[in-house]
TrEMBL record:
Domain of life the protein comes from: Bacteria
Gene Ontology molecular function: hydrolase activity, acting on ester bonds
Organism: Pseudomonas brassicacearum (strain NFM421)
Gene3D superfamilies the UniProt entry points to: Metal-dependent hydrolases
Protein name: Deoxyribonuclease tatD
Alphabetized InterPro entries for the sequence: Metal_Hydrolase, TatD-like
Length: 74
């Protein structure tokens, strides 16, 4: 299903704090999902979409910036 989402409409999030990514190893000792786990979400989504992590990060960040009206940081 994630392959069907157009590039301009895909944003990533972490479901913090209750749902750890299933593929996260090792699991945090505190059992909490935190924003730092977003890299694992990125890795899995990129894998299933057949994209590089760098490309997915760039276009999902651009999508989030446009959606929330955030400035581009250089």
């Amino acid at each position: 299903m994630v392959r069907e989402i157009p590039r301009g409409r895909l944003m990533l999030e972490s479901d913090a704090p209750y749902l750890l990514p299933r593929t996260l190893r090792p699991k945090p000792k505190n059992g909490r999902n935190e924003p730092a786990c977003l890299t694992e979400v990125l890795r899995e989504v990129a894998l299933h979409r057949g994209e590089t992590q760098e490309d997915l990060a760039a276009h999902s960040t651009a999508c989030a910036r446009a959606f929330f009206g955030l400035p581009t940081i250089s």
